[in-house]
Design a protein that fits this description.
Structural class: alpha+beta
Strand content: 15-25%
Strand order of the largest sheet: 1-2-3-13-5-15-4
């Protein structure tokens, strides 16, 4: 049992945490463990209008686990700004890929465990974030589908995600994106706690042992069924909101917004310790 009060956000995923403010984030020694327990159970935690500064966000994130450096540099910052403004983030163009359903870290040996995102500025229109449970997607398969999925291996690549969000990419761009090595994962992630989730989203390039057409159709069908409207929680951001989600069990995407928008989200990521296997 946790020591916080929550309210369900949908029938399938997410809870709002009702009785936590900035001071409690910093002072309650049990809160991080409570949040990790809730995250494992519900996938998405929403804290409304906390208005955290970067130092507070990083300090709380460290209570959840090891905070990764931006760009994986040992001397890098711990806050990554999610914005389409290249003046605020030189990698802004890559973030167009966030409009497609995806899982962060799928080209890594060990994906990150969780994402912590706070809203500093929001879009006038669009810019919401949608979430769908990969655990529920796995559980919903028939017995025959589960058996097939357990035998399936999928190649993930940065190139696949960028080609999806940049359909008219130049040869130079494709060559650059191809420099990041692909990673092969099983379609079904068998977790240390005994649960299973489907590993889907924009980084899926092809299915081993299937033709390109067959593999893409198979993955597209699973993704569509995993993200039906009734299975999705859509968070409409207000300035100051903080949202944490479990990368291991949640698909997410941003809804489209004007690239000139002031939308500015500050992200910390919590390192994982569980390979996809």
């Amino acid at each position: 049992m946790t020591n916080v009060t929550t309210k369900p956000l949908s029938d399938s995923i997410g809870v709002e945490v009702l009785d936590v403010d900035r001071d409690r984030l910093l002072d309650d020694d049990a809160l991080a463990d409570d949040c990790l327990e809730l995250l494992d159970q519900y996938g998405v935690l929403v804290f409304r209008e906390l208005h955290l500064d970067d130092d507070t966000q990083v300090a709380f994130s460290r209570r959840l686990g090891t905070v990764e450096k931006v760009g994986r540099r040992d001397d890098g910052a711990e806050i990554f700004r999610v914005t389409l403004d290249p003046a605020k983030n030189p990698a802004a163009d890559y973030l167009k890929g966030t409009f497609d359903w995806h899982i962060d870290g799928m080209t890594d040996d060990i994906p990150i465990m969780a994402t912590v995102l706070s809203a500093h500025q929001v879009a006038a229109s669009g810019g919401d974030t949608e979430f769908a449970s990969k655990y529920a997607a796995s559980d919903s398969l028939s017995d025959d589908e589960k058996e097939r999925a357990l035998e399936t291996r999928v190649v993930h690549s940065f190139l696949a995600a960028q080609k999806l969000s940049h359909p008219n990419a130049s040869e130079a761009d494709i060559e650059m994106w191809s420099k990041r090595p692909p990673k092969t994962h099983p379609l079904v992630w068998r977790h240390q706690n005994g649960r299973k989730s489907l590993v889907l989203g924009a980084t899926t390039d092809h299915v081993e042992g299937m033709s390109e057409t067959e593999g893409r159709a198979y993955l597209a069908d699973l993704l569509e069924r995993s993200t039906l409207p009734e299975s999705v929680y859509r968070h409409e951001w207000a300035v100051g909101d903080l949202v944490i989600w479990d990368i291991r069990g949640v698909l997410h995407r941003a809804t489209r917004y004007d690239p000139s928008s002031a939308r500015d989200m500050h992200r910390t990521t919590i390192a994982g310790n569980e390979a996809v296997q």
